[in-house]
Amino acid sequence: MEQTKALNALEPFLALHKTATSPIAAADLVTRATSAPNTYLFSELLHTPSIQSLASSPTHASSLALLQIFSYGTYADYRAASPALPKLNDSQTLKLRQLSLLSLARDRRNLTYEKLSEALGLDSTRDLENLVVTAVYAGLLDATLDPNRQVVQVHSVAPLRDLAPGAVPPMMEKLSAWSDRCTSTLTDLEAEIQAIKDQAARRQWDQELKEKETQRLTALLKEPTSESAGKKSAAAVVGKGMRFGKRGAVDDHTEEAMDVDVDDDAGSKVRVSRRKL
């Protein structure tokens, strides 16, 4: 959204570049574009023929260099080359500091009050905090101030900086290296997932074997053996030929008869036949 807003703000100056046929007009166009509100992207204007023609102008080539700094440079770059560059007005100074803050926010090591004040040419903590607040309200970044720790905590940065010449190949190398790391990580994860699946399959197979073996042993325990069956049959046969009395088991087939003399009522002895127990 902020990027679209910045591109729309640059449109009038892109239309005017066709009329800027002289170096003076082109230099004035640079000043107006960099001073206007909401203009933060300058790459399209920078590559127009009228602006590029400033490179061959001995007196206005500095305006081309200034636009390059606004496009992808920093306030520190401007101060380093300031003797050869046009003087900034208040609007340009504020905007270049805001754009520089976007570049510095890429590295958290640059976000202490001390380092930011030095890089942005600010003399006091209050000036730095005011600059951060204006950048937040302009939609350039999402940040909070931490006066106790003397740092600026940046949460997000709007894509409102142009790429410097030669910045694409290193970026592509970093993206390629990142892609290779992602591919390697995915390969390792897939290998671990497959190993887990294999282990689960082996555990399931072992469990099934154990269950089958348990069922087989249970069935064997329930079935009578031939020896125990023979013993039961013999016991049944013996049991049929035995009877039990007061003296224990007696074989019905081995009983013997015996005669016993018994006194009758008349006092005479009578021989009675009884079985011998």
UniProtKB/TrEMBL annotation:
GO terms for cellular component: COP9 signalosome. Residues 2-159 form the PCI domain. InterPro entries: COPS7/eIF3m, PCI_dom. Keywords: Signalosome. Residues 251-277 are annotated as: Disordered. It comes from the Eukaryota. Belongs to the CSN7/EIF3M family. CSN7 subfamily. This is PCI domain-containing protein.
